[in-house]
Structure formats: C-alpha cells, structure tokens
Amino acid sequence: MYRLKIYWFIPLVFFLVVPRVRLFAFEKVGVTSFQFLKVMPDARSAAMGDATSSLNLGIHSVFSNPANLVDAYGLSVDVSYVDYFFDTQHQSLAFSWAKNGFAFAAMALRIDYGELYETTVSDLGYLPSGDYNPGLTGNVFNPGAQVYGLSFSQRLTDKFSYGIVTKYAVEDMIYDSKGSIMWDAGLLYDTKFRSLRLSAIVRHFGPQIEYYDYSYPLPQTMAIGISGNVFGKESLLKVSNKHRLTLAFELVQPRDYDQQYHVGMEYGLDEQIFLRSGYKMNYDTEGITFGAGVKFKGFVFDYSFSDYGNYLPAVHRLSLSYALAR
Questions:
Q1: Three-state secondary structure call for residue 282
Q2: Low-confidence residues in the chain, pLDDT < 50
Q3: At 190, phi and psi to the nearest 5?
C-alpha cells in the first residue's frame, strides 16, 4: 500500500503541475532585468547541470533550494568563485546553521563586470599626434552588482520541509543604480522510498525594476525536480556502502524563455571523491557540464566546467566549504 501511494504521487505531480507551467510559456527573450541572478555560484550544482533542487547540498542549498538546508547539520561556511565571460567575476560567501529541524543561513554575492572605458561621440577623431581616437575620454568605470540574503528553513515532518530566502539585490551601472527585494521559496518531499526525493522551487520573486520610465520584471523561475540513488545506500537498484550514483532531473520554467530541462549525475567513492556531469536542454548556448569534488577532514573542494558552445568561452567555478560542527 505504501509503495502504491508513492507511485501515484509522482505522476500526479508531473501531470498536474507540468501542463499548467507549459500553458504560460513564452519565449520573451531579453525582457527581464538583473540577469546576473541566473548565474549559479555553486560549483557542485553547476557541474550537475543545475538539476539539484531535490538534493541535499549542505550549505550550497541556500542557492538551489533552501528547503534542503535542514539537512546541513551544524555550522558551515562556503566561499565560491565564478570565472564568467569577458572579465566578469562572481564571488559568494555563505554561512548556515541547522539543528533539530530548523536552519538559518546568510549569503552575500558580488559581481564584478571588470573595467569599462568611457567613449563619447564628441571625442571621436584624430589627435594632434595623428593617431585616431575612437572616442575614449580617459575615464574608466567599474560597474557591478551585489546580492545579500537571509534564509530560514524548517522540517515540518520526517518527509516534508520548506525554506524561504529573503534577498536584496542592487546593480550599479555607474550612470544609474537600481535595487530590489525578492524571495526564493522552496519545498522538499522526501518520499522515504529508498532515496527518492521531490522538490519545487520559485526563485527571484519580486517587483519589477524601472529603468528610464520602463519597467522590467525580475528573472523569476519555477522548477520541479526529482532525484534518487541508482546505487549506494538506500538505492533504487543496488545497495552499496562504497559506491554511490545519484541521478537528478529538473524541469524549469523561466519567465523569459520556453520550458527548459536539467539532467545531472554524481558518482561518489566512499563519500570522499566525487565525479559529476550534467546537461541543460533548450538553451541557446549552455549544454554539457562536468566537474569533480574532494572531501577531506571537513573541507570540501568542488570544481565545475560549463560549456557555452562555439561562440562563448567556457565558464569555470570553484567552491570551498567547511563544516565547523556536526
């Protein structure tokens, strides 16, 4: 009887929720603001194609699904770095504490767009030396953005938990600066059938951003996910205490594009060495991802590689976390 309920629950989620999400799907490319919010800071999530909302990522769950933070027992800290396009860099810092079914977390994200050289039409022309000036004024700008967030999570039952992140993001483009409050809200359902877990998450829910009398919505996304161990402890197929293979799938509905799909995989050897891979479908540029991780004496080091096709450089991420108490 218990297994029958589980088998009915899975199709119910996908057949009721997915068609409704699809109904409102439009490819409104370029209509949302604060695009930096779409970049995942966490190397482990990125290596698995961002298909991680149903996984226990420890402190990194503050970026993927805060409902999972209740499983990050004790006090943890994480720093991450993203080498993005065209001299753009992302740095993040996060702290979390979880005990007795409650979890609190804080995060900060900094985006550096690099140096931009000011040009004006009035400065176009030839210099007295005879050299051509493409409009450079000599002024150099450093635009950027910051995100600050506080998270609360609670386990309501042995199967169900939720989490909320309240964030404030500000983007400074030198000539204009805009900021806004927003929220992430996530749910997690642990079926207790082997390792099968289901999730739902809404990210970047908040008001529109106004630029020069025009308003643009935040890049809000909705995702539902499912994951389980193919082999390992409490696996769906084969039990193993030494090897673990986790598969994850996520259906994503962004505000400014059609429905997208994430698939991820993680192999763990003695929960000390990890190999990861993923694939993101229905993207203009993003596709295959992979990475690795090492755990040693409480420290966890993760690396990820994300391919962006023929016309954009690959993106590399590094994450270092440490569990201060368990």
A1: coil
A2: 1-26
A3: -90, 110
Give one DSSP letter per residue of 32-88, joined into a string: -S-GGGGS---HHHHHTTT--TTS--GGGHHHH-GGGGGGS-EEEEEEEEEE-STT-
Q: How far is CA 309 from CA 284, 288, 289, in A?
A: 9, 9, 11
Q: For the chain, give every domain's residue range.
A: 2-323
Chain-centre distance of CA 106, in angstroms? 15
Two tokens at 313? 């450089």
What pLDDT is recorded for position 16? 45
The three-class DSSP label of residue 23 is: helix
Planar angle of CA 141, 142, 143, nearest 5 degrees: 110
Residues in the chain: 326
Structure tokens at 34: 């604060």
Q: What is the pLDDT of residues 26-75, one digit of tens each?
A: 456 667 889 999 999 999 999 999 999 999 999 999 999 999 999 888 99
User: For residues 182 and 218, is the Cβ–Cβ distance under 8 A?
Assistant: yes
Long-range contacts of 261-267 (CB under 8 A, 24+ apart): 262/49, 262/50, 262/51, 262/223, 262/225, 263/49, 263/51, 264/47, 264/48, 264/49, 264/50, 264/51, 264/52, 265/48, 266/44, 266/47, 266/48, 267/243
Dihedral sign computed on CA atoms, order 294, 300, 301, 306 = positive
Helix/strand/coil (H, E, C) string of 133-174? EEEEEEEEECCEEEEEEEEEEEECCCCEEEEEEEEEEEEECC
Residue 232 host element (H or E):
strand 221-232
Query: What dihedral angle (degrees, nearest 10) is formed by the CA atoms of 177, 204, 87, 293?
Result: 150
Predicted model pTM: 0.84
State the Cα–Cα distance between residues 207 and 97, nearest whole angstrom.
29
Cα separation, 291 vs 198, in Å, equals 24
User: What is the topology classification, in CATH, of domain 2-323?
Assistant: Porin (2.40.160)
Residue 29: its pLDDT value, please?
63
Q: How far apart are CA 124 and CA 18, in angstroms?
A: 54
